[in-house]
Design brief:
Length: about 160
C-alpha cells in the first residue's frame, strides 16, 4: 500500500514508464506540481519500504537488433553463486541475471541469465563464455529460447472509486 495520495499520484504518473527526456524525474515533478527532489525522495522511500521494487528499463530487444534471446539456466554451487552471478550479470550481452531457489527434483537450476544476440549462433557463443566464467562451479546448464515477445509492464494501479 502506498504511504499517501502523493505517492499514489507518482506511481500513477510513472506506471507506463518514465518520459524519455534528459531529466525524467523533473518532467514527472512538473506534471504533478512537485519538485524533482521530492519525486526522487518519495520513489527512494517507496523502494526502501518495498512498495516499489525497482525502477528499470524494459527494452524491446528485437527492435535493438537482438533477434535471438535465450534464458540460460545454470546449476551453480550455492557457495559461489552470488559472486559468479555478479560476474555474469556484468557481461554486455546479459540484460538480467538473478538467483532463484531450485525446484528439485525437476528443476536443478539456481542462476538465470538472459542472453541476447543477433542470431542463435551468437547466443550460443555467449552461453559458452558464461560456461567458461562459471567453470567447475557449474554442474549443468540449459537455455530456453524466446519464441515470441511477451508484454512487459510494470505495476498498474486500479482506478480509485
Amino acid at each position: 500500500m502506498t504511504r499517501d495520495a502523493t505517492d499514489r499520484r507518482i506511481i500513477a504518473a510513472t506506471q507506463a514508464g518514465l518520459p524519455l527526456v534528459a531529466e525524467p524525474y523533473a518532467e514527472v515533478a512538473g506534471w504533478l506540481g512537485l519538485s524533482e527532489a521530492e519525486v526522487i525522495a518519495r520513489l527512494t522511500a517507496m523502494q526502501d519500504a518495498g512498495i516499489v521494487r525497482r525502477v528499470a528499463l524494459a527494452p524491446n530487444h528485437y527492435a535493438l537488433g537482438m533477434q535471438a534471446n535465450g534464458m540460460s539456466v545454470w546449476d551453480v554451487a550455492d557457495d559461489r553463486a552470488e559472486a559468479l552471478g555478479e560476474a555474469v550479470g556484468a557481461l554486455s550481452f546479459v540484460s538480467h541475471c538473478y538467483l532463484r531457489p531450485r525446484a528439485l527434483p525437476l528443476w536443478p537450476y539456481n542462476l538465470f541469465a538472459m542472453l541476447h544476440g543477433p542470431d542463435r549462433a551468437t547466443v550460443e557463443a555467449h552461453r559458452a563464455e558464461v560456461a567458461d566464467i562459471l567453470g567447475d562451479a557449474c554442474a549443468r546448464h540449459d537455455i530456453l529460447y524466446s519464441t515470441r515477445i511477451l508484454k512487459k509492464t510494470g505495476m498498474r494501479l486500479r482506478p480509485e472509486g
